[in-house]
Design brief:
The structure holds two protein chains of two kinds.
Chain A (H helix, E strand, L loop, with lengths): L2 H16 L4 H17 L10 H12 L5 E7 L5 H17 L3 E6 L4 H11 L10 E6 L4 H9 L1 H4 L27 E5 L5 H9 L6 E5 L4 H4 L13 E2 H12 L4 H37 L1
Parallel strand pairs in A: 1-2, 1-4, 2-3, 4-5, 5-6
Helix pairs in contact in A: 1-11, 2-11, 4-10, 6-8, 10-11
Chain B lengths: L3 H19 L5 H36 L5 H21 L12 H7 L3 H32 L5 H16 L2 H6 L9 H36 L11
The chains are: A alpha/beta, B mainly alpha.
């Protein structure tokens, strides 16, 4: 047997040793680790990170009566991570008396946006401080068109009514009539397209929320050129925003579960490494 | 002609869009605006085309009794149910062909389309995504082994970032100096080594997009025509 084959054989043996723990045990521990904190919250302290504070400051810097654009670019798969951030930002906008123009670049974003509207409808007056313009196809090109003439892309709201009949849409021509855009994004089209077109081409401040797994890809845009102004990345960041707004929601509730799940994964990684090291030591001795 | 005409249209449209970025004056700005409107209309039709294509593919699989044809049948039934409820009773505040379907809405609490979307589809999608947590836990246990210097580095960084992104990580290192505080370590890893790598990827991808766009505009890349 060649040296290469021997090393492959030994690596595969080690692999077999590591995989000796039935994966169902791991699944069981994760299940318990996630469900127990959801039933009995531990209330771990949540620290606010600079990226989330930047988003909060941007919303805070808008003046009462200013118009903001919220784009719902996600579907139910990412709802547990992104919806809490959207809810917290809408609550913040209500507290600041901002006017919310909601659109969706993903077809299913409309229903998710509507769910939040139903929840907060007591504080939202349709057509006055909130409007749901529904979904538009076209992604990046649609954003480009909105920058030229917003009403051309959204002549009617999600219910089919002429948008010019609503107070909130009067005088809206293009991106100059909005304070900023926040994209709640879990893929393409989403936040990247908003940065490239609305931010870089039209100078509209862009912020938003994304899933934890997508967050590293957006960090380069948070730079001195302010391509992206802060980021609510994943459930932890959504919990931080909830803390800033002062209304703990589903993200805060989920943070304990996420913390314990991460800890369990780390414990299993340590177990895997110890098992691998012991096996390696044993096979060396036998050789 | 079958190939030359689409190539010519693609060339003219591509060049026009590039010129409009550099010369934001009439007629270029106006023409690019018109092309954008055309694109939005075509994109709308593309959704219908995609649905028809999905339906055709699934029907063919069911009729040819290909492997796991039952799943394709389930897809067709789901598609038909949502389509019919949407068309007949509408969704949210929009009316369908038969109005708002008040009787059904009163019975189940919301319109049938919304009821299925909220109570079934949303939970199924969230459950599918949540399953990742279980598989990631199992995969991390097997894959994150300190076999070499590189894998040790990967392992250490992943553990630091994972802990730094939890409330436990912050609580564990609260009493330590700021540079040893886990959320700060995690933020450093994400803001510097990660961002440097991500920037390289973004720049590479950007250059790739420019290259492939030029290939399309100049007619070098012709696979979109359906040929070889």
């Amino acid at each position: 047997m060649s040296k290469k084959n021997i090393s492959q054989h030994s690596a595969s043996n080690e692999g077999k040793q590591i995989s000796k723990i039935d994966r169902r045990w791991i699944f069981l521990f994760i299940l318990l680790g996630v469900s127990i904190p959801l039933l009995i919250p531990f209330g771990f302290e949540i620290e606010v990170t600079p990226n989330v504070k930047m988003v909060y400051d941007l919303v805070n810097s808008a003046h009462p009566g200013d118009r903001i654009l919220l784009s719902f670019d996600y579907d139910p798969a990412s709802k547990p991570e992104i919806q809490p951030a959207a809810e917290a930002m809408i609550q913040h906008a209500i507290d600041k008396d901002l006017k919310i123009v909601a659109i969706a670049l993903w077809p299913m974003g409309v229903s998710l946006m509507n769910e939040i509207y139903e929840k907060k409808s007591d504080n939202l007056n349709y057509g006055v401080n909130f409007i749901n313009l529904g979904y538009t196809a076209g992604g990046m090109v649609a954003i480009q068109s909105m920058g030229r003439n917003f009403i051309d892309v959204f002549p009617r709201d999600a219910n089919g009514d002429d948008v010019r009949n609503f107070d909130i849409m009067r005088d809206v021509r293009n991106f100059n009539d909005f304070s900023f855009v926040a994209s709640f994004s879990s893929g393409t089209p989403g936040m990247r397209e908003w940065i490239m077109v609305a931010g870089d081409s039209y100078g509209l401040p862009v912020t938003g929320s994304t899933t934890a797994v997508s967050t590293p890809g957006f960090l380069p845009y948070i730079n001195e050129q302010r391509q992206l102004i802060g980021l609510i990345g994943g459930l932890k960041a959504a919990a931080e925003y909830e803390k800033l707004v002062g209304i703990p929601g589903t993200a805060t509730a989920g943070m304990d579960a996420q913390s314990i799940a991460h800890l369990i994964i780390i414990i299993f990684i340590i177990i895997g490494n110890v098992a691998w090291y012991l096996n390696k030591h044993k096979s060396k001795k036998e050789a | 002609m079958k190939y030359k005409l689409p190539l010519l249209i693609a060339f003219c449209a591509g060049i026009l869009m590039i010129l409009s970025e550099f010369i934001p004056r009439r007629p270029f700005s106006q023409l690019s605006g018109t092309l954008e409107s055309w694109f939005l209309i075509i994109a709308g039709f593309a959704i219908v085309l995609g649905q028809l294509s999905l339906l055709k593919l699934n029907i063919m699989k069911v009729f040819s009794k290909s492997e796991n044809w039952q799943y394709h049948l389930a897809a067709i039934i789901s598609f038909a149910v949502m389509f019919l409820f949407g068309i007949l009773f509408g969704m949210q505040r929009q009316a369908g062909l038969l109005g708002h379907g008040e009787m059904l809405s009163n019975l189940i609490g919301s319109k049938p389309f919304d009821y299925i979307f909220i109570n079934l589809y949303q939970h199924l999608m969230a459950a599918m995504f949540s399953l990742l947590a279980f598989f990631i836990a199992s995969a991390a246990y097997r894959a994150f082994i300190a076999r070499s210097l590189e894998s040790t580095l990967l392992l250490s960084v992943s553990v630091l970032v994972m802990l730094g992104n939890t409330s436990i990580g912050a609580a564990m290192t609260n009493s330590l100096p700021a540079y040893l505080h886990l959320p700060n370590i995690s933020a450093f890893i994400m803001d510097f080594p990660n961002t440097a790598g991500q920037r390289a990827i973004i720049i590479g991808a950007g250059l790739g997009v420019i290259g492939s766009s030029l290939r399309l505009i100049l007619g070098i890349e012709r696979s979109w025509l359906g040929g070889k």
